[in-house]
Design goal:
Largest sheet of chain B: none
CATH architecture of chain B: Orthogonal Bundle
Helix content of chain B: 40-55%
CATH class of chain A: Alpha Beta
Number of helices of chain B: 4
Distance between the termini of chain B: 11 Å
Oligomer: heterodimer
Radius of gyration of chain B: 11 Å
CATH topology of chain B: Non-ribosomal Peptide Synthetase Peptidyl Carrier Protein, Chain A
Radius of gyration of chain A: 19 Å
CATH class of chain B: Mainly Alpha
Structural class of chain A: alpha/beta
Number of domains of chain B: 1
Structural class of chain B: mainly alpha
Number of domains of chain A: 1
CATH superfamily of chain A: Thiolase/Chalcone synthase
Largest sheet of chain A: 7 strands, mixed
Shape of chain A: globular
Strand content of chain A: 25-35%
Number of strands of chain B: 0
Chain lengths: ~350, ~80
């Protein structure tokens, strides 16, 4: 079992930026009537999502989120030793978006920056990677971004995904703190045999972009896609999501001897309510300890967990220390669970782009 | 596992279809209320009741409830 314990790193601040345009699932043109829409809302819990325009990228949302966070924390961009950008909707094929953001955010030229192209498991993976780097004690301050523009890499005429996915950028400030005695604990998981449960087949090196890959086709009744669009095979994702995340959380709980009674917050990737409720019940966490933001923002992949924290846990996380357990799961298929403690966190209210 | 119990568990996932009309040879994807959401309920039911995860493709290649029952039974062994 791959497990990891990291000491002396704390979450210092969090922020999020979402596009101001909201798409309401009740009035989407993909349904034959409102009743049809209400059925989907009832089972997914997703009522609406925020959507970028065609000129905005995840890095644009990121700049606003990071600047607001640094401002509220009183950190200068020059203080940042490490900057990680978790995102699959990158600005360009090359270079890494983190390099461009170094310049836009005025980070130091000797700052350690990199992209982490994870999907829904990305915040948890990113927390482990960045915290691990900080734990050596040389880097003092880091920013972990989890951002995605799902509405731009999926087809708006794909009825299977349009009501579910939204756009957001989040920033998590982490700092080395030798007095922070609470460890972060992690468990990992991956099953590459399910790579085609969520994937974009064209646009990489194996299947380059061709004129055919840009043609929109009706792949099943009412579902239109291009080869370069992200495919979400709902049934396979569902089968995976009701099995692996509960198993991963149970492994985390038993490996690190977590007393579930003492957990204050269960922070789940916001896949959909049906899936998340099954996970919550499997680990016997009460509803009041399991915050959701999917009704308002949909599934924002790697940004889901930090967006939930920013929009639903502002008071809890800025107050006394809370015992938290989180689980991210999705494209890969990849998943990861973590235990951490957070308190006195500088929380910035969600910003509109 | 027995087919009668499987049929009852299957019928319990449907909202608008009379349970009595569901038989082993019912072509479930031709039911009026069948949708991708019903498929998810069936996947969840099979996980809860039989501890087996069926794939989207298992549902796609099954025509009748008996077909699906056979797949679940095979996966249990």
């Amino acid at each position: 079992m791959s497990q990891l314990t990291i000491n002396n790193v704390r979450i210092a601040g969090m922020s999020a930026c979402v596009p101001s345009t909201v798409e309401d699932n009740r009035t989407l043109p993909i349904y034959k009537d409102e009743n049809d829409a209400l059925k989907v809302i009832a089972s997914t819990g997703i009522e609406r999502h925020h959507k970028v325009d065609e000129n905005t990228t995840a890095s644009d949302l990121t700049v606003k989120a990071v600047e607001a966070l640094l401002d509220k924390m009183g950190w200068a961009a020059q203080d940042i030793d490490c900057f990680a950008y978790v995102c699959t909707s990158r600005d360009y094929i090359a270079p890494q978006t983190a390099c461009i953001l170094q310049d836009r955010l005025k980070l130091r030229n000797d700052c350690c920056v990199f992209d982490l192209p994870f999907g829904c498991s990305g915040w948890v993976y990113g927390m482990s990677i960045v915290s691990s780097l900080l734990s050596h004690g040389s880097f003092k301050r880091a920013i972990l971004v989890a951002a995605e523009t799902n509405t731009r890499n999926r087809n708006p005429r794909d009825t299977a995904v349009r009501p579910l996915f939204g756009d957001a950028a989040t920033a998590t400030a982490l700092e080395f703190d030798p007095d922070h005695s609470r460890p972060m604990n992690f468990m990992y998981g991956v099953d590459g045999s399910g790579f085609d449960a969520v994937w974009a087949p064209y646009g990489g090196i194996r299947n380059p972009v061709t004129p055919e890959a840009l043609e929109e086709k009706e792949v099943s009744p009412g579902v239109y896609r291009r080869g370069v669009d992200m495919i979400v095979n709902g049934m396979d994702v569902f089968g995976f999501a009701i099995k692996q995340p509960p198993r991963s959380l149970k492994e985390l709980i038993s490996t690190f001897n977590i007393d579930v009674e003492t957990v204050d917050l269960l922070l789940l990737h916001q896949a959909n309510k049906f899936i998340d409720e099954k996970i919550r019940k499997a680990v016997k966490m009460p509803t009041e300890k399991t915050p959701y933001c999917l009704e308002e923002y949909g599934n924002v992949t790697s940004a889901s967990i930090p967006l939930t924290m920013v929009t639903r846990c502002h008071e809890q996380l800025s107050g006394e220390e809370k015992h938290c357990v989180a689980c991210g799961f999705g494209v890969g298929l990849a998943w990861a669970s973590m235990e951490f403690y957070a308190g006195g966190v500088t929380m910035v209210d969600v910003i509109d782009y | 596992m027995n087919i009668q119990e499987f049929i009852e568990n299957f019928a319990a996932q449907l909202d608008e279809t009379e349970p009595d009309t569901i038989k082993a040879d019912t072509r479930f994807k031709e039911l009026d209320e069948w949708s991708s959401l019903t498929a998810l309920s069936i996947i969840a039911m099979v996980d809860d009741e039989y501890d087996v995860i069926i794939k989207g493709n298992d549902i796609l290649k099954s025509d009748t409830i008996q077909d699906l029952f056979d797949i679940v039974e095979k996966k249990r062994h």
